[in-house]
Specification:
This protein has 233 residues and is α/β, with parallel strands linked by helices. It has 10 helices and 11 strands. Helix 7 links the parallel strand 9 and strand 10. It is globular, with a radius of gyration of 16 Å. The protein starts with a strand and ends with a helix.
Length: 233
Amino acid sequence: MNIIPVLDLKGGQVVHAKHGNRQAYLPIQSALTSSSEAMSVVQALQSLYPFKQLYIADIDAIQGTGHHTDLIKDLQVKFPDLEIWLDAGFCSLEAIKTWHQTKVRLVLGSESLKSVENYQQLMTACHVPPILSLDFKSQTFLGPQSLLDSPELWPQRVIVMSLDQVGSNAGPDFDLIRLIQNKSPKTSIYAAGGVRSAEDLITLRAQKITGALIASALHKGIISNDDLEKLQA
């Protein structure tokens, strides 16, 4: 199973995402490092386990209040073997072009998409096949309904993002994940939101989920290096 740590960036710092209430996100407090500075947090995560991917949510870009473009590009230079998956609220061709000369893998978040046509334009503009994040909050799909209903338009990798579960210690939304999985059985599904422990990851693996995005359980020290070794074996 592919375990991908999450970095939420807001105001130049790594923050603790909780329930998708982005206005209330505070600088992260981690058992892995005393810093909320991005370079230090990523180094701490890589010291815990040699992760192959890192998911970054640029909260300022998603909210339209700024961006962390230079910081993210610096992270790519500092950690060249780490494949960065980036959700920066992509909804324009200009935003996509910003990343053309980098190795960053773009995530198209459904909540940021204006329409299916907008989604298809962005898909075409990406030099490397992007990842689609199907975003949900309060059991409601955030994005064009016709995209959710058209799995034939999805790329190979799809994230099921349960914003209510993020940082909640409530466990993943297994029913929602299964629903999306059933819509497109050959798609590689990544679960995001609510993972509490290695047991949750074992349950997701048994459900044949390709991977999971995690933050809180890593920073609380609940999921250890041994757990990660066993899960990724």
